[in-house]
Every structure is written in structure tokens, then in C-alpha cells.
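Table S2 (continued). Query chain:
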Amino acid sequence: MTKHLFFVIKQILKIIIQNFILPIIYRYFCLQNPKINPKLVLLADAHHTNLPSSMWQIKQVIESKGLRVEECIQDYARLSLTELLSAMSRFMNLYSQAHYVFICDNFLPVASCKKRQETIVVQLWHGGGALKKFGYDTKADIPSWYLGNVFKNYDLVTVSSRSCIRYFASAMRLGEERIRPLGISRTDCYFKNEYIEMCQEKLYERFPDLIGKKLLLWAPTFRENPKNRKVPGYREIQQLEVMLGPSWKIIKKLHPHIDCQQDEISNSFSAEELLPVIDYLVTDYSSIVFDYLLFERPFAFFVPDLEEYLATRGLYMSLDEFPGEKTRTVQELYLAVMTAWDNEKKEQLTRCKKKYMEACDGQASRRILAEIGLR
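Corresponding output:
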């Protein structure tokens, strides 16, 4: 079966589930549950087996308010059809009762019905800024013939700065009034000294041979096919580690959607746990670069397939807007890593951080909850 045919079949199944099956299930549970529970908060995601890091901070603040939290966290791609329908049915049952629903990625069930007016849906999203095109702005995500609104029912979408609003409104086909620059909940942890210290202690306790080494994190995003095991640049990154020598250690952290073997360190730590510890970031089109702006440390883009990526998915902004070097070969990347940033680059970084991450200050979670009345 070709990739395109598989994609088409998958989209048709999603259309059937969204427009016919789930609305019936939701209406059934609404009859069973005539009123919402004002203290019920639902956290839902279809891409992880455990609570996504994008929800860690918001969950802590919610629980401190004495609310009941239910989680619907499963990787739908790994479920059989029976398991998938069971997981969706459980969500629709809780959805019919919940006062607040939080998601952090595309989540079809939440958009599959006419929800109760009292239920508030918050899209936390999983990345800062807006670099690569997504949603309705790229055929790689949603084909033009798709029947149904994938982002329906969102009452609030949180973004990292005012500069992102128009991109999210375009990608999600939502009015700009629903996109609010309240910050990214996940980034709150970066402003806690105890969290930074915990990350350092945890890493060096687990891997004591890293003590004294400079750490470089390579974190590329996925391409057209998330399950494609081929990652552009993988061989060059292995060459780079040899070129840098024993004083450096490269940690390979691939996108969660990529079905590819990672190294022992990246399997043991989330990206959020690694960013506070590393000395240098190498990425391509991943939103992880926006998180790393908060640390004001050097980074570079390694984009050997830039023209292809621009043609297939596209970017909202040019990589030239960032202070990080745009490299195409391993030799260029090596030079970027070994060259210290000058004052001009540091000033550009500060401007970039302010423009794209202005609302990320350690208080995003509380600000988001206050926006929906949970003060």
C-alpha cells in the first residue's frame, strides 16, 4: 500500500468517526448525564501513553484548586479498532460531564459534536512560536477534501506571544479572538530553580560519565510521514560527534511521532528535562527552538533538505529571523558549534526571545486558568 493511499484511507475513516459515530455516542451520554459536573476537569491526548509534558504544569495548578481531574491519555495509533472505540467512548462520556477540557495537540473527539455550552475546551498546544506550517495551512496535515472541522469547539487556544496569533488563527481556521497570548503552560518549569537543579542531578546521577562534557542536543522534527524511520541528517550528526571529539556528547532526541531508535539518554529523559542542562541545541524546523530561546544559549539549524521541506510543508517565518546559523553540511555545522556567538548575535537572540516568547514568564498556567475563571 502506498503512503498516499494509506493517508487517504486514514482520512476517510476519521471523517466517518468524526461526523457519524462520535456525535451519536456524545448525544447518548448527554442523555445519561443531564448536567455537567462543575468540578470535573478532563485532560485528553491521542498521541502519548502517559500524560504529555505539555500538561504537567497545568495539572499541578488545577489539582491545587481541589478540582477532580480525569485523564484520557492513549496513543490511538497503537490501539486496535475495538480499543480505539472504547477509548473514544470513555472520553465522550466524560466530555458530556466535564466543565473544563484541556488538550495539547490535534484531538479529533473533542471536535466531533456540538458540545455543551457550559463545557470549556482549552487547546494548550505543545510548542511555542509558529515555525512550520500545520493544520489547514498544509496539505500534509489536512487535505482540502476533508469533511469536518478538526479544530471545532475550541474556546481558547494559548500561544507564546502576540506574533503567533495570526498563524494559529489561519492554521486552525478560528477567529483571532480565541487565540490568546497567555504563554505556554509547559514552559513554567523552566523558571523554577529547583526544577533546573533536579534535571542536572537526575541526568548526572543516571549518566555520571557526562560530568565535565559539553552536551549538544540534536532534536529534529518529523517529515511528511511521521512513521518514516529515515531522518535527514542522522548520518551527519554521527560524523559531527566524531569531529567534536571526546569533550562533547551528542544526545539524539527525535520527535515523538518518529518511529526510530533513539539513544539511551533520550529514552530516559524528556526534552523538557534536557533543555535546562545542555550547552548547545541543533534542530531543523522544530518548535523546540522557541523553548530554547528562554535559556539564551547558542543553537544552530541543520537543514540539508530545506528546499524539499519548504515545498512539501512550508514555514511561517524564515530561519534567517533567528540568531542561530543555518547550516547545510556537517562542516558548516561543526564550524557553527565551535564558533562563539558575538554581541550582535546575543542582541538578536534577545529580540527574538521577546518577539516570540514574550508571554512565557513562569506564570502561564495560572494566567490560562484565570482566563477561564479558575482563579
